[in-house]
Amino acid sequence: MRNLSLLTDLYEFSMANGFHHDLPTTNATFDVFYRRVPDAGSFVIAAGLQQVIETVRDFHFDDSDLAYFRQLGLWDADFLDYLANFKLDCTLQAVAEGTPVFPREPLLTVTGPIEQAQLLETVILNILNHQSLIATKSRRLTFAAAGRPIMEFGARRAQGPDSAIYGTRAAVIGGAKSTSNVLAAKLFDIPAAGTMAHSWIEAFPDELTAFRQWAARYPDNSALLVDTYDVLNSGVPNAITVFKELKRAGHQPVGIRIDSGDVTILAQQARKMLNNAGFPEAKITISNALDETIITSLIQQGAPIDNFGIGEKLITSASTPVLSGVYKLAATELNGHVEPKIKVSASREKLTIPGRKQVYRLYRKGTKTAFADLIALEDEPVTTTDTLAVFNSDPLSVDHAHTLSDFDARALLEPVTIDTTAISVKTLRATSQRQLSELPRATQRLVNPDIYPVYMTAALSRLQAELLQRATVKA
């Protein structure tokens, strides 16, 4: 991975320069979190941590960077010397990739010298916002497909090569089974999948010849695109002819792909034709600008579809193309004294949760059934045997105070080791599927999902209220 240390906003360097001179021995803790879920869902699938680790591991400034800084003429020689000898001294905590994360919960925290932690803001948000967005969209599509595999087909529609590569990675974490993107498949050990384009059919004198030539080249990978001319009167009959020839030669046909038309009717008729011809095991794959709404509708109509190839609506998260994760100062530390920090805004929903924190997933006692999350101060004991007073973390909530008892708790934020071996994408996908199975089904539905409560401990709630009052008085 190339050095991304300059992938930041100019003011990050200007602030770092000021911090270097004005707060030279101050440490800071920043939280990464989001407030709103894409597509009006209830949670986001965290993704991108491995790329954050790789970026932090290689965070430095080379001679050409320093020459460019001098050319800008914005910062003094002392700060440039500091950058020339830069050694990142920050620690990270994060939730595991694939974890469902709810609004206002830190999914990653950075602690270290304030000038260093500030410089990490933009690149960390760039990585986490992008991959978490695509993983979340993939989760929605996987949910809609109701057990049928989805394949990521979007490289040509992604906003550039990096979006295609890392979008594929995130899509698999979120639930996709395979990709058409060969580079991503190689880099992340993801199954590669694909059939053919219409140009293959058009390049031959007729459709049957095109199918036969494909079968001759790929007798054990004959998935045929049947909608170039006429799905039912040409494509499927010609595919059946070639499938029979393959079967006589000892090969098993894969199936057909439909990329246009009234997919429900075409798939239903194609299924009957394939079954009657003796190919009930032949798969029907569809593609062409699919999203979760279309997939849900197709399944409700009884379309006999085995696989979904999903391109632009997945790789760009077209319905909600931005995840607005933020990077906010939660605490500073000077001479061992930690001072919690809060951001107050005219918009109540932008009120931040102060202090160094831990996030817990709460389960019904003795089960793996999650019923709520809890944000606590980092050094605050969370007892699972006594009744616990908690408060809703949503600053707009009117249902504020609650008590909890008889539960198990699992800490979600874990220390990040920058030299750790990368976890395989398939393992991260399995982790995500397992954690999703622990959540209430009603929180996962695509339309009007149930609200999953995220609480704060009483101590954290009091701290927030005190800092809010103090800030209001100052204003």
UniProtKB/TrEMBL annotation:
- What post-translational modification does the entry describe? Transiently phosphorylated on a His residue during the reaction cycle. Phosphorylation strongly increases the affinity for substrates and increases the rate of nicotinate D-ribonucleotide production. Dephosphorylation regenerates the low-affinity form of the enzyme, leading to product release.
Q: Which reactions are catalysed by this chain?
A: 5-phospho-alpha-D-ribose 1-diphosphate + nicotinate + ATP + H2O = nicotinate beta-D-ribonucleotide + ADP + phosphate + diphosphate
Which Pfam families does the record associate with it? NAPRTase, NAPRTase_C, NAPRTase_N
Purpose of the protein: Catalyzes the first step in the biosynthesis of NAD from nicotinic acid, the ATP-dependent synthesis of beta-nicotinate D-ribonucleotide from nicotinate and 5-phospho-D-ribose 1-phosphate.
Q: What class of enzyme is it?
A: ligase
- Where do the Nicotinate phosphoribosyltransferase C-terminal domain residues begin and end? 356-463
Phylogenetic placement of the source organism: Bacteria, Bacillati, Bacillota, Bacilli, Lactobacillales
Q: Which domain of life is it from?
A: Bacteria
Phosphoprotein found in the keyword field: yes
Where the record annotates domain Nicotinate phosphoribosyltransferase N-terminal, the positions are 6-129
Keywords noted in UniProt:
Glycosyltransferase, Ligase, Phosphoprotein, Pyridine nucleotide biosynthesis, Transferase
Q: In which pathway does it act?
A: Cofactor biosynthesis; NAD(+) biosynthesis; nicotinate D-ribonucleotide from nicotinate: step 1/1
**What organism is this sequence from?**
Lactiplantibacillus plajomi
UniProt protein name: Nicotinate phosphoribosyltransferase
Q: Which family does it belong to?
A: Belongs to the NAPRTase family.
Q: Where is the Nicotinate/nicotinamide phosphoribosyltransferase domain?
A: 150-335
GO molecular function terms listed in the Swiss-Prot or TrEMBL record = glycosyltransferase activity; nicotinate phosphoribosyltransferase activity
Q: What EC number(s) are associated with this protein in UniProt? A: 6.3.4.21
